[in-house]
Amino acid sequence: MSKASDNGQFVIETRGLDVYYGDFQALNGVDIQFPQNSITALIGPSGCGKSTALRALNRMNDLIPIARTEGEVIYQGHNIYADDVDPVEVRRRIGMVFQKPNPFPKSIYENVAWGARINGYKGNMDALVEESLRGAALWGEVKDKLNESGLSLSGGQQQRLCIARAIAVKPDIVLMDEPCSALDPIATLRIEELLQDLKERYTIIMVTHNMQQAARASDFTAVFYVNEQTRTGYLLEYGATKELFTNPKNSTTEDYITGRFG
Questions:
Q1: Is residue 234 part of a domain?
Q2: Which of 59, 73, 82, 183 has its CA 20 to 30 A from that of 151?
Q3: Is the overall model pTM greater than 0.85, yes or no?
Q4: pLDDT at 261
């Protein structure tokens, strides 16, 4: 895959995306385009497929033996599910930050350097570690203890360390699966502020259960819902966040975001 063009309006899009776990269809017919250098929030009730959709964007579902994906995810003009595409390379270009902070049981320095090292980085590692920690708004807090364990940090710091680890390999896109759900309100605010800085350099797509967070932090919002008969998730509505929250086109979207149900 070639490097992303700065001219592309959409950095990644799905076409007819279906995901199955064994015989169960978890996601049906998702068509969505993600603009470059923006934050898109995926929201919806539990079980609607939003995390499944997120993991489909960098083939993380491939790691689940019973999972099967149909349709296309187009990134840089290529379907990432084509036979000739290396899923490891996909995950380098499209990084991921998980719900629960998961630093490695290594030093703060090695947590950041690890991904770059296994990808064959030949540059100045000290400079890359500092750049990545600065990019995750963590350098000032850890610069004097780089050799201490990443596990010694607070929950919010650990999550920012995981963000530093993700951006150290220079991805185009950073996926985040409820990155603030395990954090207190102050740490959550720090992450939300960080997202606004990160979108200058990356495209961010995040799942959140917090609709207030989606309204505050995202540029675009995709609302997922679930078919009550089949329990299959689908894309209900997608658009600019401000428009979607103030003037949703779908009555079910309005009911969900106003808390009437879901």
A1: yes
A2: 59
A3: yes
A4: 61
